[in-house]
Design a protein that fits this description.
Helices cover 27% and strands 16% of the residues. The chain is α/β, with parallel strands linked by helices and 364 residues long. It is globular and about 55 Å long.
Length: 364
C-alpha cells in the first residue's frame, strides 16, 4: 500500500510485532495506584478496555522510590508492583493488544515529602523549578532546590533504569518507552536551561545527551533494541523547561538515537501552541527525516489530522491521549465515524472508577 493510502487504521510492523492499527494510547498519568505504588484491579480494567489500540503505552511508572513525584502513581521496581502490572499485561494480551511500559524518573519535579527519608529530589543541577507539587498531608508545596547529582551517583541512576526494565520484562510487557520528555530527569539533563554542569554530563550537547544514551544502552541490553522506544518533547515548557537552541539539541539527539535501532522514536508536539516558551521554536517536522526508524508523534490530533500526517509521511504512528481517556474503543469510533465521548477533566488525576473505567462504548 502506498504511503498516501495509509491511515491510522492501517496495520504496521513495529519491531517483532504486527500492530492492527497505528493508533497508540499515549502515556497518561491517572493517579489511581494503590498505596505502595502498586497497580490495582481498577487499572487492569482501564487498560483492558483500551486494548484495541494498536499499541498502549502505559502511564509513567517510576523506576525507583527516588523517581516519584506524584501521589498514587505506580512503580516498577519491586515484586508487588511487578505482580500488579502482570495482571494488566495479561488482560491486554487476552484482548489481543500490545502494551509497552513507560520508564519514569521525575528528577527535580518532586518534594522531600515524596522522597525516601525526606531527602531532596535529584537533578543535573541545583536549580529550583517554578511551581508547586501536591504532597499528601501537606497539600500544595513549592518545589525545592534539588540535589545536584555527583558523578559517583550517576551509575546508580542508570542501574535504576536497568532494574526497572528488567522488572517490566518480568511483568509481561511487550516493550518499554524511556521517558526523556516533559521536564523529567533525562530531559533535565538534555536541556541547558536545567543542566549547568561543567563535567562530562554538561556543557556540550553531546555531554548533556550522555545520560540518555547510557540509559538507552542499559535498557536495550535487557529488552533488545527493537522493543525499546524513546520519548522527547523539544518545545515543551512544562515543568519550567527551556533550551537555548532546541533545534540543535534535539536534532543531535534524534540523529544519535539511530545507532540503537529502536522500536520507535516518540516526539510529542506539546508546547508548539506556546511558541518560544521553551526556546526558539522550529518546525518539528524537520526531525522526522533525521530518524531512520518508526516515528511517532502526538498532541492535539483528531482522525482527520492523524490520517493526513500518516499520508504525508510526517509520522508512522499517532498517539492519542485525551481521546483515549474518554473513548476506550477509539479505533472503532474512528472506523465508524461515530460520535466521541466528552472527557471529564475533573477526573483526570484523581478518583476511582468515575472518569476512568465508566466511559461508554459505542453501540454495535
Amino acid at each position: 500500500m502506498s504511503q498516501q493510502h495509509l491511515t491510522v487504521l492501517s496495520p504496521i510492523q513495529l519491531g517483532p510485532y504486527t500492530l492492527r492499527n497505528r493508533l497508540v494510547m499515549a502515556p497518561l498519568t491517572r493517579c489511581r495506584a494503590f498505596p505502595g505504588n502498586i497497580p490495582n484491579d481498577l487499572m487492569v480494567e482501564y487498560y483492558r478496555q483500551r486494548a484495541s489500540a494498536g499499541l498502549i503505552i502505559s502511564e509513567g511508572a517510576q523506576v525507583s522510590p527516588q523517581g516519584m513525584g506524584y501521589s498514587n502513581t505506580p512503580g516498577i521496581y519491586n515484586p508487588e508492583q511487578v505482580a500488579g502490572w502482570k495482571k494488566v499485561t495479561d488482560a491486554v494480551h487476552a484482548e489481543g493488544g500490545r502494551i509497552f511500559l513507560q520508564l519514569w524518573h521525575v528528577g527535580r519535579i518532586s518534594h522531600p515529602g515524596l522522597q525516601p527519608n525526606g531527602e531532596l529530589p535529584v537533578a543535573p543541577s541545583a536549580i529550583k523549578p517554578a511551581g508547586q507539587v501536591f504532597v499528601a498531608d501537606q497539600g500544595l508545596c513549592d518545589f525545592v532546590t534539588p540535589h545536584a547529582l555527583e558523578l559517583t551517583e550517576i551509575p546508580d541512576i542508570i542501574e535504576q533504569y536497568r532494574h526497572a526494565a528488567n522488572c517490566a520484562l518480568q511483568a509481561g510487557f511487550d516493550g518499554v518507552e524511556i521517558h526523556s520528555a516533559n521536564g523529567y530527569l533525562l530531559d533535565q539533563f538534555l536541556r541547558d536551561g536545567t543542566n549547568h554542569r561543567s563535567d562530562t554530563y554538561g556543557g556540550s550537547i553531546a555531554n548533556r545527551a550522555r545520560l540518555l544514551f547510557e540509559v538507552t544502552e542499559a535498557v536495550c541490553n535487557i529488552w533488545g533494541s527493537q522493543r525499546v522506544g524513546v520519548r522527547l518533547s523539544p518545545l515543551q515548557p512544562f515543568n519550567d523547561m527551556r533550551d537555548s537552541n532546541p533545534k540543535a539539541t534535539f536534532s543531535y539527539v534524534v540523529e544519535q538515537l539511530n545507532r540503537f535501532n529502536l522500536a520507535y522514536l516518540h516526539v510529542t508536539e506539546m508546547g508548539k501552541e506556546a511558541l518560544g516558551a521553551a526556546g526558539e521554536a522550529f518546525d518539528l517536522n524537520e526531525l522526522r527525516p533525521l530518524f531512520n526508524g518508526t516515528y511517532m508523534t502526538n498532541a492535539g490530533y483528531d482522525f482527520e489530522k492523524a490520517n493526513t500526517a500518516i499520508a504525508e509521511n510526517h509520522a508512522d504512528l499517532i498517539a492519542f491521549g485525551v481521546l483515549f481517556i474518554a473513548n476506550p474503543d477509539l479505533p472503532k469510533r474512528f472506523a465508524r465515524n461515530a460520535t466521541l465521548n466528552r472527557p471529564d477533566l475533573s477526573t483526570f488525576y484523581e478518583g476511582g472508577a468515575k472518569g476512568f473505567t465508566d466511559y461508554p462504548f459505542a453501540s454495535d
